[in-house]
Every structure is written in structure tokens, then in C-alpha cells.
């Protein structure tokens, strides 16, 4: 799971519930310091598995300073966005339709879309359903198909635990498996925030989306078929155990996408190196807005 540096919204960030045709979603909405008149465009950020909108919290100020309105969202059943207990509600196509509704509800015209990890799979599915609401797509640490074999084993283990244990029991079991250095680091103060976020996830959402990570088909050719209609960007750290970096390199080539590697980052460049990641994303958005 990504470990945001804080769960406290930065100055200039408005937490609220975005009302859409498919329900309400918790968001963090950050505007440029100069107000609406200085906005270069709007972006929608989609978090990954077991994550939340706070995973982008360190990216919000630098992106706003660069002139972008940035909206990070909790998907249905994720942290502060409620969701049903029916696993079918979390099918990838349903989550993709949620994104389309969120983009429409922002009322900003086509938005730049960025998805981290599982969020990238959801974002890709939304674009394939309807690319019209989007100006560009950035896939951050999100690969062409199912996750790596050892990650599939981990996700299956978590799904099995969620089937027989409550969320608190699973949390305690996961923490017991933490390496000593992570346990020591968490003692510095972020453990309770992470625990609170974990407990507010709907277990049906975790089971359904976890299963999707283990069976997702390769849809790169479908996305590449959009051709020049939508600028594409593949961004990752220099090391990634969920989708190995050479796999992401190959996906970018197949897509004809811009490729960015963030030095010093692993699976979560958004929390590992937020300033450098924000600069790369802002540069891509600016280029995507140029006449083609």
C-alpha cells in the first residue's frame, strides 16, 4: 500500500463529496493559487488497490502551483466513498462508468486522467468505454495485464483472509508480517492513519478489485487503436515488483506513449518522489494540450 506523508489536506485543497449521476464520491480538489482564471486545465487522479485519494496528497501543491486544478478521488467502496456489499458492484466496467460520471460532474470539459496501479486499469477501461471526456491518459505504475505471479499469490492470500476474517483481524495479521524496518517506521505516527483508512474500505471492494488484478487481460492493442485521439503517458519508478519495469517499457512502446522513469521511486512514485513525479506529469499535460 502507498504511504502518504500525511492525511491532512494541504492549504488550498477543498475536501468534499462530488455528486454524480452514479452517487457521491469523496474528493480532494486543489485549485491554482491564482484561482479559476489561472487554471490551465483540470485533472482527475485515481488511486490504486488498498489506496485512497490521499496517495496523491504530496502531488497536489506542486501541480496546483504549475497551474492545474487537480481532483483526487476515492472510488466506490474505497476509504471515504461508501459502496455496497455486493462484489458485482466493483466490476471493472462499473468502476470505469463511475470515472466517466466523475469527469462529467467536474464540469470542466475534457480532463487529464491519471491512474495509479489498479487505478490505471480502471482509467484505461473508462477511456476504452468513451475517450471523449478526457484530454490525456497517464498510466502510473500500471501495466498491460494481470500483475506479476508473486503479486497474484499475495492478492489471493489477502482475498482468502478477507473471506474469513474481519477488517481489523486482517489488519493485525498484515502488520504481524511487516519487516522490522517497516514496523519501526510506522511507529513514527502514520500507522493509525493507515489503519483507519484500511478499516473504512469495503471488503467486497477489496475482494473484487483484487481478483481483477489477477485476471486482467492485455488490452494494450485496444488502447493503441485510439491512435492520435488521446495522448498517452506511461510513468513509473525505476523498480517495480507489481509490473516489472521492462514490461512497462514494452507497453509504452506498443502504445506509442511518452515514457517517464522517476529516479529513486518504486511502485508509488506519487509518494516516493512526489515533486519529480508532479513535474513530469505537468510537463506531459502541457504538451498534450498543444495543437496536434
Automatic annotation (TrEMBL):
* Signal peptide interval: none
User: Where is the AB hydrolase-1 domain positioned along the sequence?
Assistant: 44-148
Per the UniProt entry, what is one GO biological process?
A: glycerolipid catabolic process
Chain segments annotated as transmembrane: none
Recall the GO molecular function terms of this protein's record. triacylglycerol lipase activity
- What does the UniProt keyword field contain? Hydrolase
Q: What is this protein called?
A: Alpha/beta hydrolase
Amino acid at each position: 500500500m502507498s504511504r502518504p506523508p500525511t492525511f491532512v489536506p494541504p492549504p488550498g485543497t477543498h475536501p468534499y463529496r462530488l455528486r454524480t449521476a452514479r452517487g457521491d464520491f469523496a474528493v480532494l480538489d486543489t485549485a491554482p493559487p491564482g484561482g479559476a482564471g489561472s487554471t490551465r486545465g483540470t485533472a482527475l487522479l485515481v488511486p490504486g488497490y488498498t489506496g485512497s485519494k490521499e496517495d496523491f496528497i504530496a502531488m497536489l501543491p506542486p501541480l496546483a502551483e504549475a497551474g492545474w486544478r487537480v481532483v483526487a478521488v476515492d472510488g466506490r467502496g474505497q476509504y471515504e466513498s461508501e459502496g455496497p456489499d455486493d462484489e458485482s458492484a466493483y466490476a471493472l466496467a462499473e468502476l470505469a462508468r463511475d470515472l466517466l460520471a466523475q469527469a462529467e460532474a467536474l464540469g470542466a470539459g475534457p480532463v487529464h486522467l491519471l491512474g495509479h496501479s489498479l487505478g490505471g486499469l480502471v482509467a484505461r477501461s473508462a477511456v476504452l468505454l468513451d475517450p471523449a471526456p478526457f484530454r490525456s491518459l497517464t498510466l502510473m505504475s500500471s501495466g498491460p495485464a494481470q500483475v506479476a505471479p508473486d503479486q497474484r499469490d499475495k492478492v489471493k492470500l489477502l482475498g482468502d483472509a478477507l473471506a474469513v476474517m474481519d477488517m481489523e483481524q486482517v489488519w493485525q495479521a498484515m502488520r504481524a508480517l511487516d519487516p522490522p524496518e517497516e514496523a519501526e517506521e510506522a511507529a513514527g505516527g502514520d500507522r493509525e492513519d493507515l489503519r483507519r483508512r484500511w478499516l473504512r474500505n469495503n471488503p467486497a471492494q477489496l475482494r473484487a478489485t483484487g481478483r481483477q488484478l489477477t485476471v486482467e487481460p492485455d488490452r494494450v492493442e485496444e488502447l493503441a487503436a485510439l491512435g492520435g485521439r488521446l495522448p498517452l503517458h506511461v510513468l513509473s519508478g525505476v523498480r517495480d515488483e507489481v509490473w516489472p519495469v521492462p514490461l512497462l517499457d514494452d507497453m509504452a512502446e506498443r502504445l506509442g506513449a511518452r515514457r517517464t522513469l522517476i529516479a529513486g521511486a518504486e511502485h508509488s512514485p506519487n509518494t516516493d518522489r512526489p515533486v519529480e513525479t508532479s513535474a513530469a506529469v505537468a510537463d506531459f499535460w502541457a504538451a498534450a494540450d498543444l495543437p496536434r
